Amino acid sequence: MSRLILLLAFFSLWSMSTHANKIDSLEHCVLNATGTDKVDAILLLGGEYQYSNYTKALKYAEDALFISKKLNYEKGIATAKMNIGYSLTDLGRYDEAIRNYQEALVLFQQLKDRNNEAICFNDIGYIYQSQGMIDYAIDSYLKSLKILEKLDDERSTAACLNNIGLLYHEQGNFEKALEYYKKSLETKKSLNDQYSIALSLNNIGSLYFSQANYIDAQEYFFESLKIRKKIDDKKGIAQSLTNLAGIYREQKKYDTALEYLKQAEHIQREMNDPVELANTVNIMGVIYNKKMT
Fold first, then answer.
1. Which candidate, 285, 46, 251, 291, places its Cα nearest to that of 277?
2. Residue 20 lies in a domain
3. Are 232 and 203 in contact (CB under 8 A)?
4. DSSP letters of 198-266?
């Protein structure tokens, strides 16, 4: 499942060529900046760890919140709470995440920040969807989509369309899900958003997997994995590896499935991703049991 990328406006200020250079530059800014500029730099620095180190991303967001409160910097408080919600979601702490998102949502509404209001609605929908609260998820996603369409925000609209597709996918409405997935994918391709393109390819692969169409599923999973390796999306790489393992498991190619799962497990341990790690270890246990029978 996907969420809207945080700090869309902030990220446009930075165009360093590599992830490492961005971190070095932002760390320098954090040390030398003061006031609200320091908060913005901390938020950006935390954003660089959003897909690779959830604990570190959470710490930076909490640091930004602390300073923002001292400065009475409302935009900083709202954005920090939103980012805290994002990291807590990745860490599986959903109740805390919802609370932070809802607090951020109220602040963004007061600030008339429609873009971040839409992000909060979308991400709250993601959490509800993760918990199986489908009606609440649909309500949140539609609120987000309505705002994004008014803003003519193609990138975020694509992410929201993808999430609605996921919802139909979970309900077993494969035709409707594929329709939304493809709308989302086409928009992402027009934006050349590699991270999000990989996400959509993965979801289409998952849809075919749900229909036991393993040939098409494998094609989309490998295409997604290729992009994710290129952009060093560790969480995405682990997800693609796990999904490919699922195909080999269904084909009873257990050794190949375990090979892919071990690669995913290694990445998830490096990232301190307890939710996905537990899932991967559980699947490995099931496969080992099947090999013994």
1. 285
2. yes
3. no
4. HHHHHHHHHHHHHTT-HHHHHHHHHHHHHHHHHHT-HHHHHHHHHHHHHHHHHTT-HHHHHHHHHHHHH
Record the pTM.
Answer: 0.64
Task: Report how many domains make up the chain.
Answer: 1
Degrees, nearest 5: CA angle 52-58-64: 125
User: Across the chain, what does the average pLDDT equal?
Assistant: 90
CATH of the domain at 80: 1.25.40.10
- Residue type (1 letter), 130: S
Structure tokens at 232: 């060093």
> Would 173 be classed as within a structural domain?
no
pLDDT of 49:
86
Say which residue the tokens 């080992």 belong to: 288
What is the span of the domain harbouring residue 39? 1-151
pLDDT in tens, 217-244: 999 999 999 999 999 999 999 999 999 9
Both tokens of 165, joined, read 């597709």
Residue 176 lies in a domain: no
How many CB atoms are located within 10 Å of the residue 282 CB?
Answer: 10
Q: Which of 192, 226, 231, 222 is nearest to 204 (CA)?
A: 222
- Over residues 171-222, the pLDDT tens digits come to 899 999 999 999 999 999 999 999 999 999 999 999 999 999 999 999 999 9
Whether 266 is covered by a domain: the verdict is no
Q: Which two tokens stand for residue 115?
A: 């873009």
pLDDT band at 6 (very low <50, low <70, confident <90, very high): very low
Half-sphere exposure of 184 (CA within 13 A, CB side): 31
SS3 (DSSP) at 283: helix
Residue closest to 276 by CA, chosen among 231, 227, 230, 243: 243
pLDDT tens for 61-85 read 999 999 999 999 999 999 999 999 9
- Give the list of residues 6+ apart from residue 96 with CB closer than 8 angstroms, or none: 85, 88
